[in-house]
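Re: your question from the hallway

Yes, I did run it. Sequences:
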Amino acid sequence: MAQTRYPKTPREEQPEASPEPRTASAGTKAKGSFSRRQFLRGSAAAGAASAGLLSGMLDDAAAQGEPGVAGPGAVDMAFRINGKAYVATLEPRVTLLDALRNHLDLTGAKKVCDRGTCGACTVLMNGDPVYACSVLAIEAQGAEVTTVEGIGSPADMHPIQQAFVDHDAQQCGFCTPGFVVASAALLNRHPNPDQDTVHRELGGNLCRCGTYAGIRAAVAQAAGGGTTNG
Amino acid sequence: MAEYVWPAAGDRLHIGKHISRLDGPVKATGRAKYAYDVNRRGMLWAIMVQCPHAHARITAMDTSAAEAMDGVVKVHVIQDVGTEIQWAHDEIVAVAATSEEVARDGAAAVKIEYEVLPHFVNERAVDEAPDAQPAQAETTGDPAAAMASAPTKSSGSYHVAQIAHCSLESHGQVAEWQDEETVTLWASTQAISGVASQLGEQIGIPASNVHVETQYMGGGFGSKFSVDRWGVVCAQLAKDTGRPVKLMLDRDQEVSVAGARPSTHAEVSTGADADGNVVAWDSKSWGSGGPAGANSPPLPYVFSFENQTHMHTSVPTNTGPARAWRAPRHPQACLVTMRALEDLAHAAGMDPLDFFLKNIEKTGERANTYVEELEKGAELMGWRDRWRPRGSATGTVRSGLGLALHTWGGRGHRSNCEVLAYRDGLVEARIGSQDLGTGTRTIIALVLAETFGVGLEQVKVTMGRSVLPASGASGGSTTVGGVSGATRRAALNAVDAVFERIAPRLGTEMANLELKNGQLHFKDGSMAAMPWRQAATLIGVNPVSATGANPGPGQLNDSGVGGIQMADVSVDMETGVVSINRMVAVQDCGLILDMKLAESQVYGSLIMGVTYALTEERVFDPHTGQMLNPDMEFYKLAGIEDVGEMIVHMMTGPGYDERGVIGLGEPPVIAPGAAIANAATNATGVPINEMPMTPERVLAAINGGMA
Amino acid sequence: MRAFEYSSPRTTEDAIRMLSAEGAVALAGGTDLLSLMKDGAAAPSRLVNLKAIPDLAGAHESDGGLHIGATTRLGPLGEHRVIRESFPAVAQAIAGVRSRQVLSMRTVGGDLLQRPRCWYFRAGFGLVPMHDGASMAKTGDNRYHAIFGNGGDAVFVNPSSLAPPLIALGASATVLGPDGERTVAVEDLYRTPASSDESEFTLGAAEIVTGVTIPMRSSSNATYEIRNRKGFDWPLAAASVAASDGGARVVLGHAAPIPWMSAAAGEALAGGISEASAEAAGDAAVADAAALSGNGYKIQLARVAVKRAALAAR
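Structure:
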């Protein structure tokens, strides 16, 4: 949470950070209206409507040799998520995580630390696990995004999801979607991982209830390596 | 009339088996909707402006810029000019806007001025505390005389830092009004029934008009019992704007104001006789969990000695206030007591396992349980073969063993349940409880299925709504006893009611009927057994309904458990890094309903214990009083690589089962820190007396930098 | 996070032009910048995404050495054959990151130019926070702060994973800006600011690092990190050692406002790595360390990190 945390004023606006701040104000009001679609260069908007959803407007503009500038107001964006096309009109500052959760109602990825530390927001971009809180939605255009919803459904679970259920690798379940996505990526990279590999590949996810024993066992089951605990 | 007992060991269909949690698939696929996930049409986002000072008075406020902002719908002043603020990150103003981004812009545009007042955030320096309060003084026997004559003595200072709950789903809720008098609150709470009453009272509508909904919640650990000020603010904003409002705490706020476990600092002296019997205990403790200070930890812990004295000082600080943290005050008391007794065992030249066994009668009525558990734990750890006297290890990386005992109550809370049996064969339990992830939903289902003698696919659990039959808050390990007792009684009553309804239609007596293994049996053999689903058709269009409550007739649950844990750790003597090799937990909790869920609680507790033992603590800035690590980067939760191998053994069978159900959420989280500290002490040969055992602190101990 | 303009050029020329605007900042992996923006510790008015520039991605061998484009991700880099075979110091530093997500996201340039994790900086008090005329971190809680180069008010530590091994290996960075391209030693990217108005980097306006080049000199090299958590955690001390016939270079991470080169430790290893010389290198490395009020333990950790890095390189 940015601006409500004390003297966090942009440096260029207040060069000398007051050592003992007396106000919690921060002059970070955005430029321009939030609903205004804003392109400084090119006529990409017209092209974007017909452009493939995967490429997105900015790439389209850039491809014409003129780097486009989008925002700060909302711009049209196109995404490929779990094999489906989505469009949304968002400000460039909206993260992929917020786009998924707040605008596309894909709430499987969770917002926990929102600072690229805990892994609860893990999604795949072109097969690689990333922290969706630390990717801008506008950057995710053109990428194949997979969220936990795309890994499997309750009626048709991915083997790693079934293994999470079988080994009770979840309690409150809030870290679980991130762990499931990271585990699926792990198994793609290492079909038969040893415990060191499991630890290394899942080190970017944190659980508070303490489900790591179950997660180890779940990964072992999904890898076909039987079950190990502890 | 039903007999209110649990089925005998040979007659159990589900109880005691490894049953997967029923909501596992919906969670593992990301479909479970938590409060944070609720998106309503036209919903506003609310963001709260926080106070940057640990102690200050609000002198001026200007919300006009925020109010004028495009997209900001309402600015709500929570604490106005003139208010004295007692901790940093306290909420001052809430801004509701059409998007999360604009709400943040609006919050940033609120101008607040403060008169900064002196703060105190370092309770360890109790002598500098402006407002330390004597909180407890108790003496039994003549500890001074006993100490003076004891041939073996030990003393030490033990320290446990303040930690946070750091629930992964932050506190918060979505509020939506149906009409002027009725509001729905999707809340992340451990107490749906209580929150409805609290909110109704505070917002001036009947409690029955507050509908709290919590199907899934992302961790609470004792921090989510109240509607909280932000819950009331959220409902008020929704009322004022006529739109649904979502207000969830940001991580910095979650970690700094939404829950703390108090610190404990203690100086302990102990004495033993020539045989290793503890004869004297003298402890002075102090600690803080915020502006209210901290109550005394129960010292000495688990054991009571003939001659003992304890004094506690409560130290208020300008830090976010304490909330119940799993087994309140016990983990701290366990560290202090078990470390002190391990030190005394060392002074007496005894293996701590022998020393604890020698003194086990001083634990009171659970003594036999502890003996059984210690023997089991020793076997699983290989203690007898592997334990070496303190400081025997050599080399750069040294291993050691440690153990600790704990105790907890865990009697079932007040709970009500309604069971409905439908003619399609479905049996439903309705209960106003919540599932924090402990598996409450699954427990209710399996008790219901057990009682009807049917499979789990035949039952349905409707819970997580405050309009359902009231059930207690989920805290203190009270839920499993409460909901299982209420469900068992309601289900037994429902079976009777079904028999009462269908017996005449079958031309027999109620007493002649029995439900078992999915079949309706006729005890006299007059008719062949029929499948339950066929029998259920006789119920008719109106379902059978029956209720049950806890407490109630029959002993279905009990209070009071033991439990022991052992740790095998390695310490890098050059870096002070402590590594967990193996943890062993041996735990009793009466009759275990679902072994898989029970084991999960213990595994989880060990891991949470490793975290508070090794890495997590709240760090406060001496200059500003702000928490310096209100995040998940320097507020450090252990990762999967940190927790070592874990072995869990649950005590079951005769002597345990007949006690009925006892809660398990708290007990196993109490002892890990103490066991790890004792193991680290055994490994290094120097007392490791502080949690968390960071490299900094362990090196200080190794280098003799500690008192 | 303040609203900003966004652009995603395809060429470095366009990127430099886009970055020439007031308040423009380059965006690479985002693992640091977005958090800074959410914390309000950075508030750029324009982000220029560098990841769509094909020239900046990937690693290739040439006569000059292994050239690594600035937007090459750490994960793939750690698996690069030359890195694994010739530069284990780099591979080990990457392995130390311990988060597959970060490895998938963080770029070489972003790693080198990430901002300090100092909790005063992140809380908005500035990079060189002052309180009542004194360094706020020096007089506050500095358990994670500098043990070298901390004579002034700046006592944060450089957090880069790659800088210590790259500097030890004698790598250079290519810098491109409005005035053209220049090549600098990686260590010369860093400086210690005197106040929060100054940058901790030597880059000029609208300059970007386009890549780094590790010379193909044969060396024994390794990185050793000491962390509280075995998993994803910032090291409390880190050291990289590269030793060859021509001498040894020792660089400490998380120790000073800049990656800290220890000439004395290098000299201790000049005659070859042995138990004794590794021990001596550790001692030499911390001979001029100076503890702040709460970080004395880091001196011992730095000593051990140097010793163990040297032994690992043997």
